[in-house]
């Protein structure tokens, strides 16, 4: 018998898959009202969920544990399972047992959803059947199909922690910056988790600008500078204009893509390198880049009202992400007001404070960490809000033209269920 731990989207997808395969299982969640409980009960899966505090009795007659990514390795149920010699694996591990088509894996602290979606659209643009899933939103198990020719999976460190036998055609670790340090004992442990993706890859794609990623001669490389090898990807600036390159060949003027910001230049380079690795046509990839508008909640332009552009970057849950968003807009606008705050992460916020004091007109802070963050800002005008409605109103009143940017640099769980709900609240307020 199998044990499924966690009744959120991932746990529900595992239960649905096991039921279809007629594999006996038990499902449990330590919360009395997990988010997918109503969907599970409505599905008539045949196995009653066990809710509330976990005990070792859950492991009786269990030969394998399928675990949701939100459950840490230090939790007692995981420790008990391992002490009993019971394998603890992710939905990604289970997915890999049944996936017949090549799999491409993408991880990193930032940018992985954008790269995953763009690569998927590149593949689709060549008329190939592609399934996009994993941490990006659609559980991997729900992507399984005999019709699929390529799987493109966004993989979190949490998913990689519980994956031992994933066979990837190719994959990339986009970047590594301090994140999720509440889950790991050290930054080094988090780094090792991310880099673990490469042990599953037949062919490596490496960001040459990321110092924490070991360089491999056999890998395909990308970076913002001129490519060193004819098969690598990079950029060149000529007479003030920047171009994407493969080796010495010009592919695309950066200004022709709809995405903005240097971080998105790197994201596009990663997608190009991965696409080239699996044999996609360069002209077709360029078409996809030009058409790609980006993802919701990732530096998403919402509307222009009374001379002010509103951007939703709710996905920015760490310092580096917010800095990248600000830098992208600073290049285009003189007046910027930032809405930030939530649950601060265990990282150094001082580089963000320095950038704010240098280039941001004002900041509106929300959430649990608002006061603490405000103490770090010395020059810019700081206001505090108790709701998103109030935050948007205060921000709008700080300028007559320019940008209001929601880029929290914090987790959302103090005020919102997740970053999507936070971003939607911002857009609803802005759009009226």
Characterise the protein shown here.
By secondary structure, the protein is of the alpha/beta class. The chain has three domains: 2-89, NAD(P)-binding Rossmann-like Domain (Rossmann fold), CATH 3.40.50; 93-291, Mur-like, catalytic domain (UDP-N-acetylmuramoyl-L-alanine:D-glutamate ligase, 3-Layer(aba) Sandwich); 300-431, Mur ligase, C-terminal domain (Protein-Tyrosine Phosphatase, Chain A, Alpha-Beta Complex). Helix content is 32%, strand content 22%. The protein has 14 helices and 20 strands. The protein has helices at 9-20, 37-42, 76-83, 91-98, 112-125, 157-161, 187-195, 262-277, 282-291, 319-330, 350-359, 370-375, 388-396, 419-431; strands spanning 2-5, 25-29, 50-51, 64-67, 88-89, 103-107, 130-134, 150-154, 168-173, 201-207, 220-222, 233-238, 241-246, 249-253, 300-305, 308-312, 336-341, 362-366, 381-384, 402-406. The strands form four sheets. The protein has a six-stranded parallel β-sheet, with helices on one face. Strands 15-16-20-17-18-19 form a six-stranded mixed β-sheet, sandwiched between helices. Helix 1 links the parallel strand 1 (2-5) and strand 2. Helix 5 (112-125) packs across helix 8, helix 5 packs across helix 9 (282-291) and helix 10 packs parallel to helix 11 (350-359). The longest helix is centred in the middle third of the chain and has 16 residues, at 262-277. It starts with a strand and ends with a helix. The mean pLDDT is 95.
